[in-house]
Structure formats: structure tokens, C-alpha cells
Fold:
Amino acid sequence: MKDHILLVDDNQEIIELLEDILENEGYEVTSSESGEHALTLLKQGLKPNLILLDIMMPNMSGYELCSQIRRESDLPILFLSAKGKAVDKVVGFEIGADDYITKPFDTEELLARIRAHLRRYERIRKHTEEHSEKDPSGSSITVLKFKGLEIHKETYSVYVNEEKIDLSTKEFQLLTFLAENAGIVFTREQIYDRVWGYGYGSLNTVTVHIKNLREKLERERQYIKTQWGTGYVFIGEKV
Structure:
């Protein structure tokens, strides 16, 4: 099955150029000339494997679109933009982008980065499906229980004080990784490698996802502690 790429750019010439490049590489491509239209396509059920996204678009910028997508999905998002300043890249990574490529771009580098992100996302998906913690009898542990918190691995469900909390796929994977290794301090580099996999990307992605998890989970008690100068550690109390 072909990998499916959603291409979002308000420049028709860029769209046509990228369509030719990507389709010649064997990808299925859906194109959109606005953030609003792209968001509508996703809400209507479009399921791309990767999103290639411009920033400077009228009405809804690429930053806004990326932020909205990240509330529901952890699909690889690559910014492709003429905005090449460091601050532009930092903003992109902090709102959840996986990569940032400046225009004009080198075709071979763009394709290499796309392949790297697709491989990594598929590897993470398979690992999540296949990997499960075992109890002493050899049976899979499908529910991780802590004081005020339950993580149901089979259904990707999380409950805080018996109330279901909506997490994105990557937020769930990050929480599960930390909870399964409770008490162990991990650097941002280690977390990125274990949850996102090796390849292109920014460590700010880890910081953003930790922040989002804390906002959603830590109402009455702390679960993820910052170990200043080192990284993060899960400190939930097992029950």
C-alpha cells in the first residue's frame, strides 16, 4: 500500500512541483491550498501517513493548523517554508512539528527526511502494537494502575480519578513509557529516542508533550517530575 501524504500550501506552483516529485517516488498525494480546507479533509476522515505543511497561508497559518492537528493526532508533520530564521523553526517545533525544511529545498534531502519520518512512525506503531509488559506468569499487563491514575494499554485509554482523559497517540505512548519505567530519570534525548525513534526532529517536541500531559493529568497530584539539569521522571504511586 502506498504511503499517503497530505500537502498543504497556498502556492499552486509549489503544489504542482511537489505533487510531481512525490508521485514520481510512488506516494499518494492529496493537496490542499488552505489550512481550513486541510482541516476539513482530516475531520472528514482523510488519513494521511505524513503532512507536508507551509506556514505563510491566509486565514489559517501553518502554525495554527499544526497546533489543531496535534490536539488529535501524532502523524509526522514537516514544515516546508520560506521562513528560515531560527525563531521560526523554534516556534514550529514547539507547537509540535517533527521537522522543518526551508525553501528553496533540495529535493533529495526532502525525500530523505520524508522517508526517515515514515519509517520511524511505522516502527513506533509496530512497537506499540507488539510490545507489552509481562507479569510473573508471562501474561500481558494491559492496565497500569497508580494512585488516581489508570493507563489501559489495549484501548489507549487513560483515567484520572475514574474520569476518562483524552490524549493523543503520542501523549499516550509517552505517558506509558514513563509509567512503565517509574522512578527512572530520562533525559530528553533518551525520551525522544525511545518514544519518537531516531531521525530528524527537535527535543522541544518532548518538552511540549510533557507540558500537555501535565495540563491534562495533574489536577490533584504530580505524576511527572522535572529533574533539573537531567530530564524527567514518573513518580506516580503504584496501587
